[in-house]
Structures are given as C-alpha cells and as structure tokens.
User: Fold these one by one.
Assistant:
Number 1:
Amino acid sequence: MPHAPATLVRRRRTRGFVQVAGAATAERLRLNRFGHAYMGLGAVLIAVLFYLALAAQVTQSSYQITQLQEQQRQLLAEQDQLRYQEVTLQAPATVEQQASQGGMQRVPPSKMVDYPAVAIDLQAPIGAPPTDQTPLWQRALAAIVNRLGVTRDALAATK
Amino acid sequence: MPGRWRVLALVLAAVLLAGMVWTRLAYWQVVRHVDLAADAQAQYRELVELPALRGEVFDRNMKQLVVNTTVYSAFVSPDQVPDDQRARVALALSSVLGADAGKVNQTLASGKKFAYIARRFSKDKADKLRGMLLPGVGLEEEQQRAYLPGIAGSSLAANLLGFVNYDGQGQYGVESYYQKQLAGTAGYISSYRDLANREIVLGTHTHQDPVNGANLVLSLDSNVQYAAEQALADGVKKANAESGSVLIMDPSTGGIVAWADYPSYNANDFIHTDPSLFLDKISSSVYEPGSVMKVVTLSGAINAGAITPDMVINDPGYVYVGGYRIYDWDRRNHGNITFTYVLEHSLNVGAMKAMQAEGHANFYNYLQAFGLTRSSGIDVGAEDIVPPPSSAQMADSQFATTSFGQGVDVNMVQMLAAINVVANGGRYAPPHVVDRIGNSLNPVLLQPQRQVISLATANQMTAMMEQVVQHGSGWMSRVHGFELDEAGKTGTSQIPVAGKYTLDVWSSYVGFLPAKHPRFTMIVVMRKPHYPGSNEDWTLNDGYIVAAPVWQKIAQQIVVDWRITPDPR
C-alpha cells in the first residue's frame, strides 16, 4: 500500500492578549529598560501595599474578634450568675423565707379524708402487758445479781 | 614553603573552618532541631485548654440543685505597678475586695512577679475592679459549683451531693461517685500570639472542642428534702442528740427521695468547713439497728413457714442462749403472746424464738437475701459496711442478738432497702440516687427486682407493722388521716464502746405509707439522744420518743405535697 504523503501542518503561533497589549503599550509609551524596571517595581509596591492593607485588616478583625469573645465570656458569666439567682429564688429555703417575710405560714391540713368509724380507740394508751409469772425468788435473785453488775445481759435494753 | 603548599594549607584551613561552621550548623539544625522547634513554637504558639462544662444536677421535678457559676481571682504583678500608683492600687483593692491595705502595699513593694490578692469572688466585684483600670492588676476566671441554700447555714442535701474542690475533683457523695460522667473531657485550642502576646484569632490554629459533662437527674425531691432537713434539725435539737439522719425511698423503684443529715455543712464554703462534717453518716457509718431488725427476722420466719403472725409463744421476759441470759427491753414476763404482739411491743424473746424456729441457716440466708451482708451498691461515694461473719463462724448468742438487731452492723441504706422489701411486695429494689445520666436511664432501673419473700408474707408483715402503729410502739408516728393505713417499727440499740455496751443509744423509726400501696419508705436514726428527763428514765431516748415524731412530721409534709390519700376500706 502506498504510503500517503504527510501533510505539513503549520500552525500559526498566536500571540497572547497580554503580550499584544504590553507590546502596544510599550510602543506607545516608548519605555526604555529603566521604564520597564520602574513599572515592575511599581507593580510589586502596589502588591505589597495591598497585602499590608489586607494583613492590617485581618489583624484588626482578629483583635475585634478577641474583644467580642471577651464580651461573650462576660455575658456568659452574667448569665450563670442570673441562673444561680433564679434557681436560688426557687429553692425551698428561699421560698419559705420569702413567704414568712410576707407574713405567710404553713398551716397543717385541717381536714382529712373522712374515714368510716373504727372499733379501736387510737387515742387509748397501750395496755399493760400480762403479769410477770416468774417465781418471786428468781426475780429477787436476778435483781440482786443485776445490781451487782456481774451478769452479761447488756443487750437486754434493746427495744 | 613553595607556593603550592601554601595554597593547599590555606585551602585546608578554610575547609577546617568551614567544617567547624557546618558541624555547628548541623548540630543546631539537625541534632537540636526538635528541641529548638519546640522552643520556637512555645514562643509564638499557645495551647489553651478549653475546659469542659461540668454536668448539672436536677431533682426528680427537674429543679436544678447545682449551678455552674463563674468566679474571679485577682492577682497583681508588683513589678508592673509604678511606685506612685501603689497607694491608689492598694486602696482600690482593699476597698473592693476587703483585702488588708497594708498587706497589699507590702506585696506591691515586694518586687515579686506575681501574687494573688483574693480568690474566688463574685462578678460584681470583678466588674468594679475592671472599671478602675488599675495598673498591674489582673483578673482570672474560674468555674465554681454553686449549691442551693438549705436550712440555716447549710446547703441543701450537702451530704448527698458532696462538693467539687478547686481542682475540679468531686468530693464525697454524688459529685465524687459520678466524677467521670459529670466532668466531661476538656478540649484545647492551639493558636498564634503576636509580640504583645495577643491572640491572632485568624491565624493558623488547631481546635478540639470539649465534651461537656452529662447532666444528672436524681430521684430526690427537693421539697421533701428540705422538709426532712428541717424536721430532722428540730428533732435532733429537741432530743439533745449528737446527730441524726433521715433517708426516704420510693418503694417501687428504690430511688432515694430525701437524704438528710444533721449537723450538715455549707458546700459553697467547704474550704472553711470542719472536714468531719463532710462524712455522710447515712452510707459511710454503720450502726446496730436494734428492733427494726425484727421485721427482717419475723418476715424470714413467716416466709420459711416456721411461724405465723397469730402463733402463740410463751415469753417469760428472758431466754438463755449460748450461756447468756438475754432479756426483753422491759425485763417483764409477758406470758403467752402472738408474734404480732411480739412486733407491736418489740420483744426480744419473741424475735429470738422466731429465729430459732426458722433455724440458723435459714435466718442467715434471709439476712443475705434482704441485702444486710453486703454493700447496697448505692451510687454515692464511700459506702461503708461491716459484713457479719459467715454463718459457720457465728455463735449461738450472736444469732440470737442479731435477730433483734444488736451485735450486727448495717448502714442506713442497707436497713431501709431491707425494710422496703416488705413495702415493695417482697421484692428487693436496689437503692439508687441517680435516675438518669445524660439521656440514658440508670442501668439499675432496668434490672429485674429479685423476690426475697412472697407477696403473701409481705402482706402479713405489713399487717403486723400496721398493728405496731395502731397498738404498739409506733403510736407517736401516726399521721393524721392515715392512722389505719400506716406501717412502722421502732428501734433502739445500745452503742458499744471498747467491746461494752453503754447507756448511749441509736434510736430509730422506720415505716411506710400508705400501708397497702406505699408511696414512700422512710427511716429516721438519732445518735446519742439525751431527751429531757432521760437521766432518770433512759427509755425516754427510745425510738418511739425521739425518732417517730420526726418521721411523723416529715410524713405529714409528704402527704400534703404529694397529695396522698388513704386507701379506701
């Protein structure tokens, strides 16, 4: 198969806008080498100034944030304080104190739920226990021995 | 020397000198790199800890019991106070903070770099100081716990809650037990500082947020707690007692409703408090419960089928056990009596006979089942227990005395939880203070409750305890309107000193109300009461005289606050 001849493709190099504009400006301004240097220096200076202005603004914002944080801390502390006051005002001790200062008193309930009559007398004293049936001599002996303090019956007082 | 050698010598000298410089450079830049980099960072970087907020504590009605507040400490840098300003600074500090002006002047003249003038004062004072723009004076913020006021001079539930020390560590009570959950985890922020040591917020920094502590919701009712503290203080003063304690429990859950000690302390001023007051006597000290134990003894014996409430025994007023003659409290012959009468009149002989009918092994098993041989597991710091010896090591006389609550040591939580078994239909409800930790329930609440005695036995014992209130030693505890619907038991036990019992006693009263459907179980213990007239008649120090009225007063208050009505009949 015959080899097809390679077509020579020549691409035209296009010049960029900046190059064109730069060249046009240089042509119009007729800048020499020093002029170029000054231009470059000016550009750098503007960039530096811009950076410094930005940095100053950032630093200022930074300090403002610090101030606001401090303010926030103060407000939170005040909030804590107010919350403690609120909670303390609701505490039973404070409520009672305030009430008594206002002339109020806790009154025990005067009327309770009605009850059907009961067979026992709740006000009656507790009845006497049955008579002691221990022989008299044994009780007398126990009393003497107890008085002498030789028995080991200290536990008997438990009720 | 030929010129070639001279050049070589010069080159060598130059190489040597350069080598020295390079070696030194290598030393600083390679060998010491890590140290120097760290030193440099320390100069312009700052690692600030972001403290976690400690969790707050609420009662069962979501009333706050503990609040985090900000307090301030004032410090001076004496070398930064100009000489002509010292007098003004000293005067201002003494007028705002109450510090001694002379001492402040001395500090300012000392030439020190740093000195505190006052610690932990309120924001009002800090604001005043800030407004004065004093040279060389600085303020330091600190977090502090603030507790609610209780009865005169103390804070509410001080012995239950404990306090947090200046290092942020919980001490005693709930603050100590739940330190890890309450404290949370601190975060940090690493930022840059400028020459004036001001933070450059927008600089590069790393940041780790703190994890705040979990809030706790207690089963406590702050109104009942206050009522208990008031009634207890009055009771202790009236009985001339050394101290007293009240513990109230929700019968069905085991949640603690009130936990009061008297005398107590002000947790807001722990630094100036006698440390002996910090110790909570409810869980951290043991006592001999006395006749309150008869409820456990008789319940076990009834449940084992060894006795019934109506079974008749003969009580001559004493009994011989293991070579000891042990008496009833009144040393009187009671003749033929029922076990209900034994409980009503708190007779030791009856309790011993019930224990003997049941047998030592059974009796000991019930002690274990009622939770009297091991820690209650209550969630407060430092529970103290003295477990009894093993069943095999206990002498006959010790079994006998244990049956009526002497010679056995328990803490109040153990004892209340044991009595609560009767109130809770025979089931043991694990005592606890905290219901919720953050958003999760306390795991104790999710465990099934173990059945200690049958429901029938619990009902029988409840009926017997009702008789104690209606006909026996519990008559001083009767709450108006609940006279027929209240269960209780008195207890008085002598205090041993150096192995011998003295005339000083622990007096107690335990009960629950309403008897059939209890809303609360409460125990009151008075230590070393000296009731007026008790020098002539020491029985005036009994539980029914000194503890039962306190119980009655608190119960009356709960009935009103919780709107409890008696069971219909």
Note: The mean pLDDT of chain B is 91.
Number 2:
Amino acid sequence: MTSALAAELTRCHACALLCRLPGNGGRGGDGEHAAHGALCPRCGAPLHGRKPQSLERTWAWLIAALLCYLPANLLPIMKVTSLGRAQADTIMSGVVYLLLHGMWPLALVVFVASVFVPLLKLAILFGLLVSVHRGSRWRPVDRTRLYRITEAIGRWSMVDIFVVTILVALVRLGNLATVEAQPGAVFFGAVVVLTMLAAESFDPRLIWDRSEGRAA
Amino acid sequence: MPAVPLVACHDCDLLTRLPEVPEGATAYCARCGGVLRRRRRDSIERTLALTLAASMLFAVANVFPFLSFEMRGRVTETTLATGVFDLWEQGVPAIAVLVGFTAVLAPLAQLSLLLYVLLPVRLGRVPWQMPRMFRLLRRIQPWSMMEVFLVGILVAVTKLVDMASVVPGLALWAFAGLIVVLAGALASLDPEAVWERLEVRR
C-alpha cells in the first residue's frame, strides 16, 4: 500500500483534487510541508503533504484547553437571583438540578454534552498525540475512527453556553428575577473553542505514517 | 494519464484507483474506512432549493422573538440578537461574541456563501472569486451551530417552567424547521461536483 505522499502526490484539503507535490522527496515525518507556496490548480488552496506543524499546534491548543478545563468546571457559569435569593450554578450543579427535578433525559443530555464530551475529547487527542510521538502501530483504523468522533462531537459542548445566553436574555425582571453570566462560562466557552481548534490542527494521516514505519 | 483516476484518502493518505462513483453512491477507503467520494443525485439543484428555503426560515428565526417569559404579569421576549446584546451589556463580551458568531453570523455566512456560489453555477456562470468563497464556506461550516442552539433552548425552557410560564414564539418554529432543512441542504451538497463544474467551465 502506498501513501500519496510517498508518490509525491497530495489530496487538496479544500477540493479533494489529487495534486503533484513539487520539490518533495516523498519523505514522511513531522511537519511535512515541503511544497512551499504550491497551490492547488483547481481551487487555489495551499498544498501540504501533511498539515504544517500539526503536532506542535495540536499540543498548543490542547494544553491551553486543559488549563481552562478546571476553572470551567469549578467556577460558576451563571448566577440566578430570584426574589432576593442569589444562587450560583456550576456546570455540574446545573446537571444535578435537572436530575433532582425529575428531568433525567435532559440531565443526561447536558451531562454528556458539557462534562463527558469535553473530557473525552481531551483524553482522545492526548492519546492520539502520544501514540503518534511514540510511533505506535497499534490499531490505526480504530485510532482514525476515534479522531473522526472527536471532530464530530465537539460542537455539542456549546449547549451550556447557549443555555446561559437564553436565560440571561429572558430572565431580566429587575428585583423579581435576573440571571447573570459568570466567569466559568468564559472558561467553558474557551474549552469548547480550543478543543475544536486542537482537533482541526491534528492530522490523522500521521497515525498511518508511523504505522507504515516510514518515519525515522 | 491512467484510465482509472487515482485518489488519496483524506484520513490516511492511501492512494487508490477509484472508478467513477455512480450518483447516490459512496466510496470508502479500503484501509481506514474514510469517505473517499460521496456523489449525490442532483446535488446542486437540491442543495440550492433547500438553501433557499433555509434562508427564508433564517430570516423569520432572527426577526421574531423565539421565547417569551412571563412572571407575575411581567413579560420579557427575546430574539437571538437581544440575547447576544444582553450578554455584551453584562460585561461578558467574550461569550457574546462566541454566541453571536456561532448562532447568527456563521449560519448567515454559510447560507449566503451557498447561495452566492450555487446560484450562478446552476445558471452556468462562475461568480466572482468563486474558489475563495467556496473554500471559505468549508472553513465556516464547523462553527455554524444552530442545531446545538435549539437543544440549548430546550434545556433553558425546562429550567424556566418551574419559575414562570414560557411561551414559544414564531421564531422557535422557524428555527426547528430551519435545522431540518439546512441539514438536508448540507447532506445533498457534493462539493466535488461543484469543483468539477468549475474545472469544465475554464
């Protein structure tokens, strides 16, 4: 089995056309982007054998996301004031609230979207990065599948951010009841955006380069 | 040139000879299972029709309030834009920008770019800066999160029903319809078919 890179070819990331990669010896490995300035003849997108500095950029986004993860979950995301009583809600207490009120299907949705998915994404990306660094040949098909899952589920973590927005907009009745957004929401939004960027920077083809044992 | 064209897999870079994929069929990578090529029936026409419908629903969804909230005789209504504006006023501009982008601007850009590219292409023309615009569409796609927003509305309403009465507005129904229609539009879009038409026209 040959990879496109070994044949000095590459698939244009924007329009999928198979293009020649000029000035590339067909070597695999980190930061493979030998075709400086080469453009896709059909759509004009820059051509790269592999996403440039994929591992470095993915690590950077991932570490930034990890730093935001704790404050996102520990700090309150919103403050509900109703008839003089103020109550601060974290992500987890929001889930518990839904659960206590017998709305377990919604509690499950919020738990999966806000707690489980971000953690799963961080864990998968971390695992993929480590496996590529170690040149692992372990189940590349499954690792590629994990990557596709990571890419697809990330957006759903935005649910809680939207909930805060809607509550803030609806519940503004002065002394009667108000909802205010809190710093936790900013960190939580940052985790969602940063993990999406991390997933986008990762190049799943690196999993296969190492499995083929071409990288030195 | 070889008789059977070569393609590379997006996910694992395997080179494969891929004969013409019939309309409505999908070719998968033999090594990693990634999609090599998915060809849709009447892709451009269907996507265009559904995008036009989605644009109308999008206008309704943004102009009318999607929820009104009543507590002790006092009523507040919210549209998408007021929600974003309130967050800005409260001093959390980062979240206001994020929500404004993912729930309003990205979907708006997505719909506009689809119309901008597909309408002329359907009529046999190439719009100005077409490759750049069509590539931009691909980049914006992941950030358009209206279906996630709808789930957010559902959760918010559930939290509020204890406190007061919540009345769904016109925009909410438009929203629900929009998500279905937009999903249909994106499912029938075959970007490679659009690129191929561009190639022929040159």
Note: Chain A touches chain B through 70 residues (CB under 8 Å).
